[in-house]
Amino acid sequence: MEIVNLRVQLRGERPRVPLVEVAAGTGAVPTGARRIWLDGRPAQARVYERASLGRGDRVAGPAIVEQPDTTVLIPEGDVADVDRFGNLLIKREA
């Protein structure tokens, strides 16, 4: 029986993915509220639709941001800022 090791490396070019900037936000407006559990105790979280958030919008926790394929929890004491590409940048508020 003979043991053969094979290593393959492939390099190729692919088109750049265009990054589209989102429109400026008009202020994050919650669509509702939901009772949730955080750190072992009940809390009231505002609910936001992700599609309604624009560049520069800010969401303070506790909050829930919903979209068709995922849900984002912003804990109490954290804030989410929407960057120019629509990303949610979550950080602890000082």
Strand order, largest beta sheet = 1-2-4-5
* Biggest β-sheet description: 4 strands, mixed
Number of alpha- plus pi-helical segments = 0
Question: How many angstroms separate the termini?
Answer: 65 Å
Report the structural category: mainly beta
Describe this structure in words.
By secondary structure, the protein is mainly β. The protein has strands at 32-38, 41-49, 58-60, 63-67, 70-74, 78-82, 88-92. The protein has a 4-stranded mixed beta sheet, with no helix packed on it. A 3-stranded antiparallel beta sheet has the order 3-6-7, with no helix packed on it. The mean pLDDT is 94.
Topology of helices and strands:
Elements: E1 32-38, E2 41-49, E3 58-60, E4 63-67, E5 70-74, E6 78-82, E7 88-92
Parallel strand pairs: 2-4
Antiparallel strand pairs: 1-2, 3-6, 4-5, 6-7
Quick summary of this structure?
This protein is mainly beta and 94 residues long. It has strands at 32-38, 41-49, 58-60, 63-67, 70-74, 78-82, 88-92.
Question: Could you list some keywords that capture this structure?
Answer:
94 residues; 3-stranded antiparallel beta sheet
